[in-house]
Design brief:
Layout: E1 6-9, H1 13-24, E2 29-33, E3 56-59, H2 66-76, H3 80-87, E4 89-90, E5 95-98, H4 100-113, E6 117-121, E7 135-137, H5 145-155, E8 160-166, E9 169-171, E10 181-182, E11 198-203, H6 205-217, H7 238-243, E12 271-277, E13 284-287, H8 296-303, E14 314-316, E15 319-325, H9 328-331, E16 337-338, E17 341-346, H10 356-374, H11 387-398, H12 433-456, H13 458-463
Parallel strand pairs: 1-2, 1-7, 2-6, 7-17
Antiparallel strand pairs: 3-5, 4-5, 8-15, 9-13, 9-14, 10-11, 11-12, 12-13, 16-17
Helix pairs in contact: 1-10, 2-10, 2-12, 3-4
């Protein structure tokens, strides 16, 4: 190799995507993954891009949903994460969910088969050697203590962290389908065309109230060593939501709207627990939104109270792990370089984005930024009118500062995009309420696709 390689630390979604993008640009890459030499509490395999929480990439509707828009932008950028996700999808209504083992195996094979990518197994237990002049750190929420300590010492920042939660997974054949039924909310079809992707378990008001009592009284895992660490609002444990009000879950992951019990169409459920397919065989389903810090014995007892799950067997119970992220608005520039040491870039959840595709998107950008730098080029981030650009703008300065630790992780959402003026309808009547909101999202999505194509040079290439 005549070109010096880019070193990427971490073989999760962000690191895998960064490696792929750099190699696609013709730049050699050394991808460092510490597993299996050093394992984590959350990972179960040695595969690259292993999914440790949900198997869902969330909505795939690019015209009406910000994460679906992010999917589409990444596809247009040749994302390996989206390519392998699309190839290993399982039914999930309007969402894109994947067979986690098939997905990881596909990403691993693609990177192993790429001649410009070398995969080295072993922990990087401190700052990268000085001779590594281009490094992407994509170690995710489970950055090893040695590396995290070295980064903290270099940046002079206190570590910022929160708990991230894992939902239980159930064996499908142990669900009582005489009580539960299959249906996607509002019968909305997903990418594979199905409209009955979820298993739904209904609750009456009395059953719901008893369930809330059990959640509140159940014995929780004790995390005294991390007291004061905040939860991420987008991934709250169910018992924490219950503590915020008895109706919180019924208006959150247990909302009954858009669902009709096929066993008793005339009776409206007071609350519904949804299960989403977790593997291609359809043998495993995860409990949607049921991240928890309940002790394992309590999980089994309390979740068996859910109608349809009274005899359910669990392939995996829920749990919590610690997440670490940088104070990115202070530390990183717009190409995600560390201001105090520009040879280091950061990607994935450690930058303060939250979610699988958001993390992979930051890997996609850092791979392209580092490759352009190697080629003697300058690459600006996508416009903030795009999903990827909006995320970069947020983590590098778009949050509202309210104190030293005010910066918090963020999923992609249309609130991060610059506003857009809507045309006045031909009949002269201005849109209002939900109709106006839907029109604004569609307009933002169309603008984003045009702007990401422009960033990729698609229009220029077509004109030539």
């Amino acid at each position: 190799m005549t070109t010096k390689p880019i070193h990427i630390i971490g073989g999760g979604l962000a690191g895998s995507e960064a490696a792929w993008q750099a190699a696609r640009a013709g730049i050699p890459v050394v991808l460092h993954e510490m597993r299996p030499t050093r394992r984590t509490d959350a990972h179960k395999t040695d595969g690259l891009a292993e999914l440790v929480c949900s198997n869902s990439f969330r909505s795939d509707d690019w015209e009406n949903n910000a994460v679906g828009l992010l999917h589409e932008e990444m596809r247009r950028c040749g994302s390996i994460i989206m390519r392998c996700g699309d190839a290993n999808q399982v039914p999930a209504g309007g969402a894109l969910a994947v067979d986690r083992d098939g997905f990881s195996a596909a990403v691993t094979k693609a990177l192993e088969d790429e001649p410009l990518i070398t995969i080295e197994r072993g922990e990087i237990d401190g700052l990268p050697p000085s001779e590594w002049d281009s490094v992407i750190i994509a170690t995710g929420p489970l950055t090893s203590p040695a590396l995290a300590g070295a980064i903290g010492k270099l940046t002079g920042e206190d570590e910022l962290s929160f708990f991230d939660a894992i939902a239980p997974i159930i064996y499908a054949d142990t669900v009582n389908m005489d009580i539960a039924w299959r249906q996607s909310r509002y019968d909305k079809p997903g990418p594979a065309g199905e409209s009955d992707a979820y298993i739904n378990c209904p609750m009456t008001r009395d059953e719901y109230e008893a369930f809330i009592d059990a959640l509140l009284e159940g014995e929780k895992t004790d995390f005294k060593e991390w007291e004061g660490t905040p939860f991420f609002e987008g991934c709250l444990p169910i018992e924490v939501m219950a503590e915020r009000g008895r109706e919180t879950l019924r208006y959150g992951p247990m909302k009954p709207v858009g669902l009709t019990n096929t066993h008793n169409p005339q009776e409206k459920a007071y609350a519904v627990v949804q299960l989403r397919q977790d593997n291609a065989l359809g043998t495993l389903f995860n409990m949607v939104g049921f991240q928890t810090k309940l002790r394992h014995g309590e999980q089994t007892r309390i979740f068996h109270m859910i109608p349809g799950l009274e005899d359910a067997s669990f392939a995996r119970l829920g749990g919590l792990h610690r997440n670490t992220f940088l104070n990115s608005p202070k530390l990183l520039d717009e190409t995600l370089c560390l201001k105090s040491d520009p040879r280091l870039r950061f990607a994935g959840q450690i930058t303060g984005v939250e979610g699988y595709v958001e993390s992979a998107a930051m890997g996609l950008l850092t791979g392209r930024f580092a490759a352009a730098e190697r080629l003697g080029q300058t690459l600006a981030p996508p416009a903030p009118t795009t999903a990827m650009g909006a995320l970069v703008a947020h983590i590098t300065g778009g949050h509202i500062a309210e104190g030293k630790r005010s910066f918090q992780p963020m999923n992609i959402n249309f609130g991060l995009f610059p506003d857009i003026a809507l045309p006045v309808p031909e009949d002269g009547k201005r849109l209002r309420g939900k109709e106006k909101g839907r029109a604004r999202k569609r307009a933002m999505a169309r603008r984003a696709i045009a702007d990401i194509d422009s960033w990729l040079g698609v229009r220029k290439a077509a004109a030539e």
